Known about the structure:
Helices cover about 45% and strands about 5% of the residues. It is mainly alpha-helical. A two-stranded antiparallel ribbon has the order 1-2. Keywords: Ribonucleoprotein, Ribosomal protein.
Amino acid sequence: MGFAHNNVLHNNHFRKDWQRRVRTWFDQPGRKLRRRTARKAKASTLGVRPLTLLRPAVRGQTVRYNRKVREGRGFTHAELKEAGIGRKEARGVGIVVDHRRRNLSEEGKKINVERLQAYKTRLIVFPRKASKPKKGDSTGDDLKAATTRLALALPESIPAEAPRKITSTERDFKAYKTLRTNRANARFEGVRKARAAKKEEEEANKKK
């Protein structure tokens, strides 16, 4: 590349005092070890408490990710009510509650209710005073049962289905047409009801 015209040649000073501005990361291995020992110390103080809090199984957002099942923020009030667990009680036994979440399907609600019930059956609540157990505390042989600190596994996103032949009913079924018809019926339901009510009223007035 040549130079044209009577211009000043570039002489940029990019390497001025770079030592003062550089950020080093030489303490990273030491920090890693420190964090690990802190986690171990915390786990030992927790005793037999679960490593993580219980969260609901929810679907990922948007069409791209809704095949995937992941952990949600917290359980809804409806799910807790159906499982027979109070809101305050849930927080005390490691269940996260999310007052903003809503149940949009019975299937999703059922999965989370079953999840709560499974957790409840496995839960052992040690009383603060063995001589004076409070309401909800475990007693007797439950306190001697084997414990685990692992969280409940998420359910399968899509249950495996064995291969089978397509039936004649399934082959003849028009999925797109059915969806469009149902959508149209839902859309015009109010208009049709109003029209039918108006017609009945007119007929009633004629009879008078």
